[in-house]
Amino acid sequence: MMANKDLTFAKAVREADYVVADGIGLIIGSKILGHPLKERIPGVELMQELLDLASRNHFSVYLYGAKPEVLKKLHTVIKDSYPGVSIAGYSDGYTSSPEEVAKQIEATTPDLVFVALGAPKQEKWIDHHYPNFSKGVFVGVGGSFDVLSGTVKRAPKIWRTLNLEWLYRIIKQPSRWKRALLLPAYLAAIVRIRLRQK
Ligand code: UDP
């Protein structure tokens, strides 16, 4: 829905090597369109898996995004829980100059770069700077730093099993309501595409 209105974001999504379905709406939409996606992959779980991989293979990681205090806590969590990871550098998502962050990453050539600025900021930043990087996997992970640092709690298991994690997040952060208001328009768009397919 965002990409329909924002062409820079649309380009970033189109040019990504992988697009991961982190939302039950995408799973439902894919079923309606007759190309069902296997499962939902929450960004926070993707980040945990990648950190695990990084720890086992002694990869270097750069962390970009979130508030300074969140980043500090996350740094400690990674040191304690993923001892094989070396932190190439980090920068919070508010005070630092985005250009300066890109330069630091160019200089330190980390294996993995987690960008947690929220959508569409993180995708645009990655897409804009990607051509200057000589190596590395760049992943937009939204609010994952908040969760992995222990600052924000993920929805309890029952909410996740019922595919209601999105509702839990709205209740906890009412500012997210604006996004939920797009849901009826999203479903209508999917149904329109389905009818055209027929
Ligand atoms: N954020 C940031 N800089 C900004 C705006 C947001 O670092 O200018 C961070 C914010 O602190 C939070 C994350 O980006 O950690 C966005 O989380 P959200 O749950 O909104 O992500 P989304 O749902 O968009 O994936």
From TrEMBL:
The keyword Glycosyltransferase applies. InterPro entries: WecG_TagA_CpsF. Transmembrane segments: none annotated. Keywords: Glycosyltransferase, Transferase. CDD domains: Glyco_transf_WecG_TagA. Pfam families: Glyco_tran_WecG. This is Glycosyltransferase. It comes from Bhargavaea beijingensis. The lineage of its organism: Bacteria, Bacillati, Bacillota, Bacilli, Bacillales.
